[in-house]
Design a protein that fits this description.
Strand content: 25-35%
Keywords: Monooxygenase, Oxidoreductase
Number of domains: 1
Distance between the termini: 29 Å
Number of helices: 3
CATH topology: Alpha-Beta Plaits
InterPro entries: ABM_dom, Dimeric_a/b-barrel
Number of strands: 6
Strand order of the largest sheet: 4-5-3-6
Largest sheet: 4 strands, antiparallel
Helix content: 25-40%
Radius of gyration: 23 Å
GO molecular function, one term: monooxygenase activity
Organism: Rubrivirga litoralis
Shape: globular
CATH architecture: 2-Layer Sandwich
Protein name: Antibiotic biosynthesis monooxygenase family protein
Length: about 130
């Protein structure tokens, strides 16, 4: 149930109009979709992927809906890398995955794998800032 707005007086007549200085509530922010893709590369092809990622990274980061992009290296296995990205929504991620940029980059990346990639999408529930 929506709370009733306080009534104001306009020329002595009660109205349910919001006062002139009333600000509507800010929209509730949608949390970004967090995406990780863990990729295991053939050790002899890791350099090929790093060159490809260096070239594609600015275009991926500029894709509509991409808020953040990182590349991580596994602490024990240098040929295991993970991309970590923030997206405005699942729709934004899906639009990127349908783009020519993704199709072309993925087509060049797939032959470099030593094992199938593992992707996860999630929402942050808590962080150390509260």
């Amino acid at each position: 149930m929506r709370p009733a707005r306080p009534q104001t007086r306009a020329g002595g007549v009660a109205t349910d109009a919001a006062p002139a200085d009333h600000q509507p509530p800010a929209p509730i922010a949608t949390p970004p979709l967090l995406r990780t893709v863990r990729m295991t590369f053939r050790p002899d092809r890791l350099g090929d992927f790093l060159a490809l990622f260096r070239e594609a990274r600015p275009r991926i980061a500029a894709a509509p809906g991409c808020r953040h992009l990182e590349l991580w290296e596994d602490a024990r296995f240098p040929n295991v890398l993970t991309t970590f990205s923030h997206w405005d929504s699942a729709d934004a991620l899906d639009a990127y995955r349908r783009s020519d940029l993704f199709r072309e980059t993925w087509a060049e990346t797939k032959p470099l794998f030593a094992a199938p990639p593992v992707a996860h999408s999630q929402f942050r529930m808590w962080n150390s800032e509260g």
